[in-house]
Design goal:
alpha/beta; eight-stranded parallel barrel; five-stranded mixed β-sheet; 17 helices; hydrolase
Length: 716
């Protein structure tokens, strides 16, 4: 017997049964389990409906993070169990690669002869990830193959960033994202909670942040809300407005912790501070009207006499929090203490992300307070590098505040770099660790080397390169696709899958407009590359969704998926082709690996996302006429095509479909419920000689045969 088909299970336990029931009793979200109390010592369950896990030795509940369970396996001969064990796991190094995060290591053994599955984790997270792998191996009939797995992550930091500042996303949508992150073993949720366009978290003691800063409407004085942006309309009824209460945030923290995901909150400053500045100005006006001048000035983030003229990259002329007034640091201190308090008892705060990016040049140059501070520090307020120097001062002050709370610090790359991309002196920041998120790598600008410069300077670097890991860019080079293209013309799932974080400049293929660019041209001829001398400081990678063009939950999920699945693959696993030095050979091996991955997505993972209600992007079909035959293909094999002549009635494309003239084609989701946008194609009017009907050749049919062979070989 080379596979297991479980029918029934039995467990002895005094308090309850640890089982994979969903709240509604369905098979949806099968990786998410609940604890149910019961007097009955035996439960008989069918694996295709509900899955039973037995924790044999004081294993922390790996799915909900509850208190340690003490469950015993029944001695009944007909008992079929899945053992969860917390114990030693050794994962052999490959090619000198050392695996981080031992608590995330696991082994999985499926033994059909004993009708037994054993998952052993070095820590609770390892057990949890073993469960995710088991669920991924299970087929539609509830069967899993005989297998022995020893697994460990490539990086200790495997993250997903979500911007809710530009457009707000409801708590329920965030929780669903966490569900899918957990399924694919991502363990860091970078929560971008503030930006120019909105402040999204209630902060006790500063109600104006949400009373004013979380709302967008038409108010030229910014007294009741901040001015409408990004098409949010004249009132506060759209996605431009919204915030999380303290209880909402704690719910998100608890939900993330149960799934072994760390929440890293970001409060972007001193740039991108429009919402906070306007909220604290409203507070100032309100308290001043009551005669409370000291209270009004306590948390003010701007200086009334500052006449500096500047324009940020998003066209704001008043979004730079003033680093030269003490009330700014009173605000930061209050904020940090409030966030630390929110995390207590659920998921203690360990990393504070202060943003720090895109401070406009020209800010603060006509600030009286900054002129006085510059004189005290021996700086020239008229210097072209004064903004970077004052930002350096701000970062040191924020570092001191966070270090006093034993927090690690995080910031975007430019928040940690001074004039001409020189990193701030690391020893001046008291935090044990400081994370730099390397994002702005437009190759021809020479900024790609920032990741290595930060790592060499002693910062822990999160690879966040916009050319490959910014999911706010289109998924194909088509003007009808949603997204920006300031960093690259498009980023599809294959591009994310092919990213090589260990050799950054091996990823150079095109400039931002899509024209060919080689590593040799960039590094050897233009001299725009740096060598990495402290490889150990590259500690992770992360995908990002900025939400300027995202107004609904479906749009959010469509921009993230399926690209996030490829991100998870690269963050957890280093492919063998990444170490191939010959580019031609590497590209060949990478393409072969992509075919396997694309088949896995098309035939399995997209269906899993459908069951979870995740509206991933359905990619339109490609079509061409070759030798008087219409050929149709899709990136992900296994998805069906449909055609229409009127955009109203649609039929599935079959091998014998007779198509001619002007037709519209679309791709169906794996479950057939959703569809891509249609594409128009002109099919041949006459069939090929000797054929009685128009022949449609679909490349995906050919790939099905290849896939079947591959799956059979893998199954053996």
């Amino acid at each position: 017997m080379d596979e297991i088909d479980f029918v029934s299970y039995s467990v002895e336990h005094e308090d309850g049964v640890f089982c994979c029931n969903t709240p509604d009793g369905s098979t949806r979200n099968q990786a998410l389990c609940t604890i149910r109390s019961t007097k009955d010592q035996k439960m008989f369950l069918v694996i295709s409906i509900v899955l039973l896990f037995i924790a044999t030795v004081n294993v922390s509940n790996p799915l909900l993070g509850k208190d340690k369970l003490k469950l015993k396996v029944s001695t009944s001969k007909d008992t079929k169990v899945i053992k969860l064990i917390k114990g030693d796991v050794s994962v052999p190094a490959k090619g000198g690669q050392q695996f981080p995060s031992p608590d995330e290591w696991y082994s999985l053994v499926v033994d059909p002869s004993k009708e037994l599955i054993t998952i052993t984790g070095k820590g609770s997270a390892g057990v949890f990830y073993g469960v995710q792998t088991l669920l991924a191996l299970r087929n539609s009939k509830g069967r899993v193959p005989k297998v022995s797995v020893k697994d460990a992550p490539r990086y200790s930091y495997r993250g997903m960033h979500l911007d809710v500042g530009r457009n707000f996303e409801a708590k329920e949508h965030v929780l669903k994202l966490l569900d899918v992150m957990a399924m694919y073993k991502l363990n860091k949720f970078h929560f971008h909670l503030t930006d120019d366009e909105g402040w999204r978290l209630e902060i006790p003691g500063l109600p104006e942040l949400t009373e004013v800063g979380s709302k967008r409407c038409f108010d030229l004085q910014d007294e009741t809300c901040i001015l409408s942006q990004l098409g949010s309309g004249p009132d506060s009824s759209t996605s431009g407005s919204g915030h999380y209460s303290v209880q909402d945030y704690k719910k998100i923290l608890a939900y993330a912790k149960a799934r072994h995901i760390q929440v890293i909150p970001e409060f972007d400053m001193p740039g991108h501070g429009n919402a906070a500045i306007k909220a604290m100005q409203a507070r100032y006006d309100k308290l001043s009207a009551k005669g409370d001048k000291p209270g009004a000035e306590k948390y003010l983030l701007s200086e009334a006499s500052d006449t500096s003229r500047y324009l940020s990259i998003q066209s704001y002329s008043d979004d730079a929090i003033n680093p030269c007034i003490e009330s700014t640091y009173a605000f930061v201190k209050h904020l940090v203490e409030a966030i630390v308090e929110m995390h207590k008892g659920t998921q203690p705060l360990t990393i504070f992300h202060f943003g720090g990016d895109e401070v406009a040049h020209g800010a603060w140059t006509n600030s009286t307070a900054c002129n006085n501070l510059a004189q005290r520090l021996g700086l020239n307020i008229s210097s072209g590098k004064i903004v970077d120097e004052l930002k350096d001062y701000f970062v040191q002050r924020v570092a001191n505040i966070t270090a006093d709370h034993n927090l690690e610090l995080a910031g975007w790359e430019d928040g940690l770099m001074s004039f001409k991309d020189v990193p701030y002196e690391r020893k001046l920041l008291r935090n044990t660790r400081v994370y730099g998120y390397a994002w702005n790598n437009i190759w021809e600008w020479g900024s790609g080397k920032r990741a290595y410069e930060l790592a060499n300077a002693g910062y822990q670097v999160i690879m966040s390169q916009a050319t490959h890991l910014y999911f706010d860019h289109p998924q194909e080079p088509d003007p009808e696709e949603r997204g920006f293209y300031w960093a690259t013309r498009f980023t599809d799932t294959r591009k994310v899958f092919g990213f090589m974080p260990d050799d950054l400049f091996a990823n150079v293929e095109t400039n931002r407009s899509g024209y060919p660019l080689t590593r040799e041209e960039l590094c050897e001829k233009a001299g725009m590359c740096s060598n990495l001398t402290k490889k150990e400081n590259i500690v992770g990678m992360q995908g990002h969704l900025w939400s300027e063009t995202v107004r609904t939950a479906d749009q959010m999920f469509a921009m993230i998926f399926p690209r996030m699945v490829a991100l998870a693959e690269r963050a957890w696993h280093k492919a063998s082709w990444e170490d191939v030095s010959d580019k031609k050979e590497r590209d060949t091996k990478r393409s072969e690996d992509w075919v396997k991955f694309a088949n896995t997505l098309g035939y399995r993972e997209l269906g899993r996302l459908d069951k979870m209600g995740v509206a991933y992007h359905v990619i339109p079909p490609g079509a061409r006429v070759d030798d008087n035959k219409l050929e149709i293909a899709n990136v992900f094999p296994g998805l069906r095509f449909q055609y229409s002549t009127d955009l109203e009635s649609w039929k599935n494309v079959e091998e014998d479909s007779h198509l001619e003239g002007k037709i519209n084609l679309r791709t169906s989701s794996a479950d057939g419920v959703r569809h891509s946008r249609p594409v128009e194609v002109e099919a041949p009017s006459k069939p090929p000689s000797g054929n009685c009907s128009q022949q449609v050749t679909s490349q995906y049919v050919i790939l099905i045969a290849v896939t079947v062979v591959l799956l059979l070989l893998m199954w053996k």
